[in-house]
Design goal:
The radius of gyration is 14 Å and the shape is elongated. The strands form two sheets. Strands 2, 4, 5, 6, 9, 10 and 11 form a seven-stranded mixed beta sheet that branches. Strands 1-3-8-7 form a four-stranded antiparallel beta sheet, with no helix packed on it. Helix content is 0%, strand content 55%. The chain is mainly β and 121 residues long.
Length: 121
Amino acid sequence: QVQVVESGGGLVQPGESLRLSCAANGSIVGIGIMGWYRQAPGKQRELVARITSRASTTYADSVKGRFTISRDNAKNAVYLQMNSLKPDDTAVYYCNANLLVPSTTRYLEYWGQGTLVTVSS
């Protein structure tokens, strides 16, 4: 069984930083693109950042210059460093991982359970 587990959310004040972590556990043969999405109350889930297995990155315009995504392939992990946080960054953040598992020939999409980030004074 495969699990994707996030950690690191919390309550911070505007301008502060947080680091989110995500690890994929279980029987995994390979890992493709990993990413972070977020969903604010009353809004659709949106891409925040994603990173390929070769560390090519993509960011939403709203977080460019403030957030940094990275990954550790040896640990099946992806991270999101969030700096200069704003109230508009308040949302549930979800980790997304495209995984190759035994007995399959294509990458499957897995989601974490989400971690709440609240930016408020």
